[in-house]
C-alpha cells in the first residue's frame, strides 16, 4: 500500500493524534470483501491483516475484537469502485460514500423517508441540482447513523441535516443533543459525494488517497 505522495499507511498511521481523524480513499472491488479494511487496520495496529479480529456490535457496526478493541475506532463505506476508511482514537467516526448518479425519484423518496424540512429544501432546488443535493443529504444522514452505531432501521426521518452543502450541520437527532456532533463534507471529485460524522469536539481531518490496490 502506498499513497499518491509515496508514503505508506503505516508511516502515516504512526502520526495519528488524539485530535485527528484519518480518512483514506482507495480503489475497491466488491470481490475483495473486507480485505482492504483489514489491511488498513493492520497498518495502524502494526500487525498483519490476518491478525486483525473484528466483531459486530448490537446493530451490526464492526469493531476491533479482543485486546485490540480499545486501541482504534474506525468506519468504512464503499460505492461501486471506490471506498473510504476513517480511523480515529477516542471517538466513533461514521463515514458514507456515494457515487453521483441520476435519482429521478429523489423528491418522492425524500418525502417518504426524510424530514419535512429536508424534503421541502430539496423540492425548492432546480431539477439539475437535486441529484447531488439528495446524495449530500443521504451521506450526511448515513454518516451520523453509522457514528451512532445504528443503521437505516433507526429511521432517516428521525434526524435532519441543515446548513450549506459544503458545511452540513446536524439540525435534529431524536434522543441526542445536536451541538455535540460534528459533520464534515469530504472533498473527493465530481463523481463522488462523501460525509464524515462523529460525536465530540472538532478534530483535524487528514485525508489521503492510495495510489494502487491494497
Automatic annotation (TrEMBL):
<keyword id="KW-0808">Transferase</keyword>
<dbReference type="Pfam" id="PF01648">
    <property type="entry name" value="ACPS"/>
</dbReference>
<dbReference type="InterPro" id="IPR050559">
    <property type="entry name" value="P-Pant_transferase_sf"/>
</dbReference>
<dbReference type="GO" id="GO:0019878">
    <property type="term" value="P:lysine biosynthetic process via aminoadipic acid"/>
</dbReference>
<dbReference type="InterPro" id="IPR037143">
    <property type="entry name" value="4-PPantetheinyl_Trfase_dom_sf"/>
</dbReference>
<dbReference type="InterPro" id="IPR008278">
    <property type="entry name" value="4-PPantetheinyl_Trfase_dom"/>
</dbReference>
<protein>
    <submittedName>
        <fullName>4'-phosphopantetheinyl transferase superfamily protein</fullName>
    </submittedName>
</protein>
<dbReference type="GO" id="GO:0000287">
    <property type="term" value="F:magnesium ion binding"/>
</dbReference>
<dbReference type="GO" id="GO:0005829">
    <property type="term" value="C:cytosol"/>
</dbReference>
<dbReference type="GO" id="GO:0008897">
    <property type="term" value="F:holo-[acyl-carrier-protein] synthase activity"/>
</dbReference>
<feature type="domain" description="4'-phosphopantetheinyl transferase">
    <location>
        <begin position="94"/>
        <end position="192"/>
    </location>
</feature>
<comment type="similarity">
    <text>Belongs to the P-Pant transferase superfamily. Gsp/Sfp/HetI/AcpT family.</text>
</comment>
